[in-house]
Design a protein that fits this description.
Strand content: 15-25%
Mean pLDDT: 93
GO molecular function, one term: magnesium ion binding
Number of helices: 9
CATH architecture of the largest domain: 3-Layer(aba) Sandwich
Protein name: Mannosyl-3-phosphoglycerate phosphatase
Low-confidence stretches: none
CATH superfamily of the largest domain: HAD superfamily/HAD-like
Pfam family, one: Hydrolase_3
Distance between the termini: 17 Å
Shape: globular
Oligomer: single chain
Bound molecules: magnesium ion
Radius of gyration: 18 Å
CATH topology of the largest domain: Rossmann fold
CATH class of the largest domain: Alpha Beta
Largest sheet: 7 strands, mixed
Number of strands: 11
Structural class: alpha/beta
Keywords: Hydrolase, Magnesium, Metal-binding
Length: 265
């Protein structure tokens, strides 16, 4: 299948997709990034990372000003110049208060309870990156320390506060109910269609269970081979529009674009 680069939009997960799971490099994808830029194909980052983490990364990728989805869909940023937040939002502080009350019933810890150094230690991020990952606006990252079977009860307790639980690559994410990567993508698709007067064909790439709603929503989906124990099984019947890669990380990312788009010259 060969999709045209005209009126295309790429939506991508970061960790384990565009970025290597271990060292966060994207070398294997760089030829494609250059080509997408030449053809003015919007590259929409769709990640569990915060806006404070994504904005500097967009700069390094050369896509400053593109719309993006942060915090697993809890935060949607439409196009335009953005300034990275310098402190956690009030909504996030309120969310942490709710979680604090739930800690009398469940054993878990949120990112807000740790220092930058602690977060750096258990994520492998640098100190500066850990600090950016803690500048949260709409969701909390949770380290579950209770039994696995208690997760269902935790979900129910969260639902009473209009909150939902999503599994990320490494941690759990507590976010407002009704938000997620799929709904966030829909919002961006509508925004772009409105701005340009017509909808773009979307090609989504992701490797984890939290990418499923985004991969279901995209016109074409690349399921990148991942490290997660939970398989990424899509429910869509148009299997010809879904491609599973043999490679992991940015190599799989390139493989997916090679499959759906005309190969680079
Ligand atoms: Mg991932």
């Amino acid at each position: 299948m060969v999709l045209s680069l005209d009126s295309l939009m790429i939506v991508t997960d970061l960790d384990g997709s565009l970025l290597d799971h271990h060292d966060y490099n994207w070398d294997a994808a760089s030829e494609w990034l250059t080509r997408l830029k030449q053809h003015q194909v919007p590259l929409v980052i769709c990640s569990s990372k915060t806006a404070a983490e994504i904005i500097p990364l967009q700069k390094r990728l050369g896509i400053t000003g593109a719309p993006f989805i942060a915090e697993n869909g809890a935060r949607v940023v439409l196009s335009g110049a953005h300034t990275a937040p310098t402190e956690p939002s009030d909504a996030y502080r309120a969310l942490c208060q709710t979680l604090k009350a739930l800690q009398s019933h469940f054993r878990f810890n949120g990112f807000h309870e740790f220092s930058d150094a602690e977060v750096a230690r258990f994520t492998g991020l640098t100190l500066a990156e850990a600090s950016q990952s803690r500048l949260r606006e709409a969701s909390e990252v949770v380290l579950w320390r209770d039994d696995e079977h208690r997760l269902a009860a935790f979900r129910s307790a969260l639902a009473k506060h209009n909150l939902a639980l999503t599994q990320g690559g490494r941690f759990w994410h507590v976010m407002p109910a009704g938000s997620g990567k799929g709904m966030a993508l829909e919002q961006i698709q509508q925004h772009v269609a409105q701005q340009e007067g017509k909808a773009r064909i979307t090609l989504g790439l992701g490797d984890g269970p939290n990418d499923i709603p985004m991969l279901e929503r995209a016109d074409y989906a690349v399921v990148i081979k991942g490290f997660s124990k939970t398989p990424v099984n899509l429910q869509r019947s148009d299997t010809q529009n879904v491609y599973h890669t043999a490679h992991v990380g940015p190599h799989g990312w390139r493989e997916g674009l090679d499959y759906f788009l005309a190969p680079t010259e």
